[in-house]
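idk why but the lab printer keeps eating my pages so im just putting this in chat instead. protein + zinc ion:
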Amino acid sequence: MQRERVSENVYWFQSEIYALVTAGVIAGPQWAVVIDTLAIPEETLGMRDFIEEELRVPVRYIINTHHHADHSWGNCFFPGATIIASDLCRQVMIDRGTTALETAKKQNPGFKQVKIVPPHITFDKGTITLRVGKKNLSMVPTPGHSTDGISVLVEEDRVLFAGDAFLPLPFIVDGNLDELVLSIKRIGKMGLENIIQGHGDIILRGEIEDAVKENLAYLSAIRKAVRAAARRRNPLEALAEVGIESCGKSRVHLGGLAEELHRRNLRALYRQYQEEEQSPEK
Ligand SMILES: [Zn+2]
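predcted complex ->
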C-alpha cells in the first residue's frame, strides 16, 4: 500500500493490489475521519494501524463516497465509527449489499471477516460539513459514476476527495453519463489544489484543467461513438471497433484495466441509449 501526506494532517492511501483504489484520512487532535476504505481487508487494516499507531488517534467517522465494494466494505473494521454518506448510498447498501457480499465470499475467502455496515448519518441534496481539528470537510453530491456519489472537500487545503466521480478513465456502467458530465464540470470550477481520484494518482493543481478537459472529451467521444454505431446495420460490431485511443484516452491507465472498462462503458451506454429510444415519451 502506498501512503502520502497530502497536506497537514491529510493523508492518502493507494492499493497496490486492487485497481489502484484510494482512501484518505484527516486527523484531528482527538480523533480522525477516514474517507473510503480499501478493497482488500488487509490494506484497510494497514491503514487503521497507521492511524492508531502513528497518528495516535481513533477513527470516529468514516465518509463513504459511494456504495461500491472497493470503497465501503472496510467499514466493518472500524467498529466504533459513525458512517456518513448519501441517502442513496445507504439505500443501495441495504438493498444490495448483503447479496453482493455473499457472492463475493464464495469467490474469494479473503472477504470472510467482512460485514456490510450501512451509513448511520445521511444527506440528500445540498452539503453537510464535518469539523475535524482545524479543518472543515464539506460533502457535496457528485453523481454520475453511480447515482449515490459524493465528494469531500477539505476547505482549508482545497483538496477534493472525489471518489469515483473523477477517475483516469471515467466509468459510467452503474451511473449516468449526463450526470457525470455535470459533476466533472462542477469539480473543474472548484479552484482546487489537488483532486484525489477514487482510483489512480493524485492530480496536482497544474494538471487539473487538462484532466477535466480530457475526461469531458472522453465522455463526449463515447456518446458520439455510441450514437453513430446505433445507426449502423450491426451496432455491436461497430461498437467493437471503437478503440480507447480514438476517444482520447490511453490504454495504460489503471494498471491495464482501461481497455476493459472502456468496452464496458460503450456497451452500457448503448443499452441506455436503446432504452431511451424505446421509451414511450420519445
Ligand atoms: Zn471504485
